[in-house]
Each structure stands twice: as structure tokens, then as C-alpha cells.
Amino acid sequence: MPAILLTEAARENLLMVFEAAKEEGALGPSPVDEHLKHALAWAEILPEPKRFVDLGSGGGVPGLILAMLFPESEAVLIDARRRRSANLEISVHTLGLTERVTVLCARAEEAGRDPELRGGFDLVVARSFGSPAITAECAAPFLSVGGSLSVSEPPSASDDRWQEEGLNALGLAKPELHRIGEAGFMVSRLETLCPERYPRRNGMPEKRPLW
């Protein structure tokens, strides 16, 4: 299990940067070790990616944790807020991840249209980024065929939150819901490249969601 690979020193360093993120308002009110446990559970269902995106990274959960667990992976942590992006840069440096982890301050719609990022990742993770329709539209453009979108789900959520027809329009397959203890995670595999028309211009996924 990936959790075994997280050394005590790495755990302490992660808790330290998450405490700082919590003070800045980039993490919710839960104890920081709960954020860590949630991400460790998430990692149990994920194969080690070559490259992954953490969409709306905020305080760095789960992106920083996955980067520590998967030492061969490269990651891009995307957040549209400058202050949070600046704090993420500090966290990446503190954790010694600068050679493998990049912080990008940008809207997801803009980043998804960047030819250097589009179709270049085998995993996108998202936690509290937006509704299922917004998350799927903003995430799918980053994926290569065979790659997966994985999203943290509310405790009582079922996979019917993720409309199969809407996912298919983005090239994504029928969603699968995984449970690890009380934590839930949706996974959808990209079967065909996301059509060029997605993501739509800034704000449109929210104003006119696909479902």
C-alpha cells in the first residue's frame, strides 16, 4: 500500500506545510492529519502515474501527498489564486519536490487549452474543485487516452452524480465509485481524446454546465 512508503519524516513535513496552508485558509477546518489520511486512502486506488494534474490544488491536497508517495511521478498543481499558488511554491520547495512538481497559477479552462499541457497526463485528481460537470469539462482536456480522472466524493455520494452521457461527450467512460472506509472516489477513464471545443471559454462550464 502507498501509505507504507510515506516515511515518518515525510509525514511530519507534510503535516507542517498543511498547518501553514490551513492558517492561510487554503484548507478546510478539519485537523490536518484527516486531510492526510484521506489522501492516503485515495492513493490506494491509483496506479502510479507518469504525470498528473491536481486541479484546484489549494493547499496541496492531494497533489503534494501523491507526489511524495509516487517518487517517479511528475506533477502540475493548478490553482487560479495567486496567493495560494505562491504558498504552494513554498510548500514544494520545503518538501524538496522542485525537480518534479510545478505550480501553475491559471484558470483551469486556460490551462486546458495550452498545447504543452493538453493531452499530456495520465491522471487528473480533483478535490472540492466544483460540480461534477464543471470538474469533468475542466479535467478531461489534460488527459491522454487511457488516462483517468479521479475525484474525491462526498460521503453519501453515488455515481449517478456523474451523468454518463455528459462524460461521454468529453471522451470519458462510465464512472466507477470506489469506497475506502468512509471515503469515496469517482474514477472515469478517457476513452477518446477530449474534443477540441472543450473546455469552453472562462466561466462557461459554470454558467452552462453540460448536465
Description of the structure:
- The structure is a single chain.
- It contains eight helices and seven strands.
- The protein is of the alpha/beta class.
- Helix 3 (63-69) links the parallel strand 1 (51-55) and strand 2.
- Strands 3-2-1-4-5-7-6 form a seven-stranded mixed sheet, with helices on both faces.
- The longest helix has 16 residues, at 8-23.
- The model has no long low-confidence stretch (mean pLDDT 94).
- The chain is globular and about 45 Å long.
- It starts with 7 loop residues before the first helix and ends with a helix.
Strand proportion: 15-25%
- SSE-based structural type: alpha/beta
Largest sheet: 7 strands, mixed
User: Span from first to last CA?
Assistant: 36 Å
The Rg value, from CA coordinates, equals 16 Å
Q: How many H/I helical runs?
A: 8
Mean pLDDT: 94
CA-based shape: globular
Uncertain ranges:
none
Instruction: Find the count of extended strands (DSSP E, 2+ residues).
Output: 7
Strand order of the largest sheet: 3-2-1-4-5-7-6
> Could you state the order of secondary-structure elements as H and E?
HHEHEHEHEHEHEEH
Q: Helical amount among residues, as a percent range?
A: 25-40%
